[in-house]
Design a protein that fits this description.
By secondary structure, the chain is of the alpha/beta class. It has one domain (10-270): NAD(P)-binding Rossmann-like Domain (Rossmann fold, 3-Layer(aba) Sandwich), CATH 3.40.50.720. Helices cover 47% and strands 14% of the residues. Strands 3-2-1-4-5-6-7 form a seven-stranded parallel beta sheet, sandwiched between helices. The longest helix has 26 residues, at 134-159. The relative contact order is 0.14. Bound molecules: NADP nicotinamide-adenine-dinucleotide phosphate. NADP nicotinamide-adenine-dinucleotide phosphate binds next to helix 1 and helix 7.
């Protein structure tokens, strides 16, 4: 594979320091994209970039040839870290402007960042959640996607491009203990599908990727530590096996690629057959 050329398409992966975003960034680099990798802070973004340039790619579903190419492109400034607090609309606007200044173009934005008040209890049985957290959680989790899309659209319109939001199957399929997450994810799905129709004539495509339970992620490891039974149950329900980030990244690359140029407004679950 050739190293990324200066005119290579540019992907901003928000939450690129996280479990799923890191693998998307790695596979995008290996496929020849230039990657702006976002984390909550400059330090976490830079740590993730350092990981990509080193052994981190090997575990990201990247082939040996891709690994070699990505190391090469990383050395040639094909990837750069950007820190921004996604709960702050001004920081989101600055992030997009900084990426555009660095790369001169933005062809895809993939939002893998998780936001929301960390202290408030918004998961679990609804009766046990904390009402004082509802408003902030909804505003932050849907608002961050909207602010990011608003800032990125002028850049995506220039040459046509893609915006991929991450939702979750809690927004598509009913289940206990998911009512607040479900409301926020359904909000993101509604936003994305309506926006897709509106911006199609500008050559911009908009999708939602909707994971169910993703193995090999920090959140899966946290759940396994607290409630191993739920992980075992999820694995039993997923007839194809629980997906990992390596199963999600190829879908994102396809949706952002030329092969998907006539596809928009889709909400695609990656759940190993847990829900259909
Ligand atoms: N993992 C799953 O099983 C699963 C299931 C369904 C849906 N999803 C969705 O998939 C997406 C990616 O999930 P993941 O498992 O990769 O998440 P993750 O490992 O927890 O990563 C979260 C990312 O969001 C960033 N972030 C958190 N708070 C932020 C803030 N206030 N401002 C800016 N960035 C912030 C983190 O940055 P730092 O690293 O700097 O903290 C990190 O890059 C999320 O939308 C998640 O809801 C995941």
């Amino acid at each position: 594979m050739e190293p990324a050329a200066p005119e290579a398409p540019v992907m901003l992966v928000t939450g690129g320091s996280g479990s799923i975003g890191r693998v998307i960034a790695a596979q995008a680099l290996a496929a020849g994209w230039r990657v702006a990798l976002h984390g909550r802070s400059d330090a976490s973004a830079e740590r993730a970039v350092a990981g990509l340039a080193g052994a981190g790619l090997a575990g990201a579903g990247v082939t040996r040839a891709g690994l070699a190419a990505a190391r090469l492109t990383a050395a040639e400034d094909a990837v750069r870290g950007f820190g921004a607090d996604m709960t702050d609309p001004a920081a989101i606007a600055r992030l997009v402007a900084d990426v555009a200044r660095w790369a001169g173009r933005i062809d895809a934005v993939v939002d893998c960042a998780t936001t929301g008040p960390k202290g408030a209890r918004i998961t679990g049985l609804f009766a046990e959640t904390e009402p004082e957290g509802y408003g902030a959680f909804l505003a932050l989790s849907i608002g961050a996607v909207q602010h990011l899309a608003h800032a990125a659209l002028p850049w995506l319109r220039r040459q046509g491009g893609s915006f991929i939001a991450f939702a979750s199957d809690a927004g598509r399929f009913a289940g206990a203990r998911q009512s607040l997450i479900g409301a926020s994810r359904a909000g993101i799905i509604g936003f994305v599908r309506n926006l897709a129709v509106e911006v199609a004539r500008d050559g911009v495509r908009v999708h939602c990727v909707s994971p169910g339970f993703v193995a090999d992620t920090d959140s899966a490891r946290r759940l396994a530590a607290h409630n191993g039974d739920r992980v075992v149950k999820a694995a039993k329900k997923a007839g194809l096996g629980l997906p990992t980030p390596e199963d999600i990244a190829p879908l994102v690359l396809f949706l952002c690629g030329d092969g998907a140029r006539r596809i928009t407004g889709q909400v695609i679950s990656v759940n190993g057959g847990m829900n259909a």
